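$ ./design --mode recover --in tokens.txt
reading tokens...
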């Protein structure tokens, strides 16, 4: 498929195309999930990043828990999470997460965090504690973690996490290398690839996973290079989704990608050797994480 790009107008940017409209959540399961999470004082990336899948995921009784606070030490242009000086890790958070997992009878839990460059291990010990304490209460649960890049402490962080191996180890490259200075301040494309490479080397059969957003101004050739780079470091799973501006201060959308192009990218990713692919306008790293995505 060749590129046919036209600059998006302000009117087009404000008016979502029809394939991006979603119904408001109203199911009983959605409200139950919301109530449990709120009552335990837990954070979710669903809320903090204004995720468009919140209604669907919560109606299935699933959520992505945000640990280590809701203040990030970085300021990425695509994200709406607050930036500043975070509080110290809350030692009660793992126990509260275990209560949530039991109350919602979860079989699959995705855990992510803000960047914690203020901590010498980037927050790895807290990830480990969350997994181990929840496993004590819910021994059959599967874990997927979506970590920051552990700047300056990748080896240390992975050694700490070795005591609590997840089912899937995820870290998002988010966008193409050329857009990092604009979209991912404080991040480094090669550093992100290196973390995924080290995780595969350290953890053997643990699946590794990443995600990329389209619509920030990248070219098809750049996207294909990202997919190749991820496969070259052994990345098994990939989600490809549309960037949507989460707040007024976030980067503008450069382009709305049609569903047919996402289908095309899915076939390209499978051809390159990814074993698990979700490519759709609303795809995010944890979207349908518990499901088979190869067909």
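writing sequence...
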């Amino acid at each position: 498929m060749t590129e046919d790009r036209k600059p998006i107008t302000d009117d087009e940017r404000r008016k979502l195309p029809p394939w991006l409209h979603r119904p408001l959540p109203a199911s009983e399961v959605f409200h139950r999930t919301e109530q449990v999470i709120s009552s335990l004082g837990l954070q979710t990336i669903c809320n903090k990043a204004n995720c468009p899948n919140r209604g669907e995921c919560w109606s299935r009784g699933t959520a992505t828990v945000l640990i280590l606070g809701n203040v990030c030490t970085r300021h990425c242009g695509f994200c709406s999470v607050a930036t500043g000086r975070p509080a110290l890790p809350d030692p009660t958070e793992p126990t509260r997460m275990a209560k949530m997992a039991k109350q919602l009878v979860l079989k699959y839990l995705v855990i992510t965090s803000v960047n914690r460059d203020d901590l010498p291990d980037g927050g790895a010990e807290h990830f480990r504690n969350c997994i181990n304490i929840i496993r004590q209460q819910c021994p059959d649960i599967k874990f997927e973690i979506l970590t920051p890049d552990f700047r300056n402490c990748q080896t240390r962080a992975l050694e700490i996490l070795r005591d609590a191996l997840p089912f899937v180890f995820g870290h998002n490259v988010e966008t193409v290398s050329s857009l990092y200075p604009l979209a991912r301040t404080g991040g480094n494309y090669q550093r992100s690839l290196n973390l995924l490479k080290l995780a595969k080397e350290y953890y053997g059969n643990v699946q590794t996973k990443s995600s990329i957003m389209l619509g920030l101004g990248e070219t098809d050739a750049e996207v294909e290079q990202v997919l190749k780079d991820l496969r070259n470091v052994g990345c098994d799973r990939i989600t490809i989704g549309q960037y949507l501006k989460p707040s007024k201060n976030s980067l503008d959308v450069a382009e709305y990608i049609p569903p047919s192009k996402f289908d095309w990218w899915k076939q390209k990713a499978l051809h390159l050797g990814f074993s698990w692919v979700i490519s759709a306008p609303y795809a995010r790293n944890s979207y349908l994480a518990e499901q088979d995505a190869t067909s």
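exit 0
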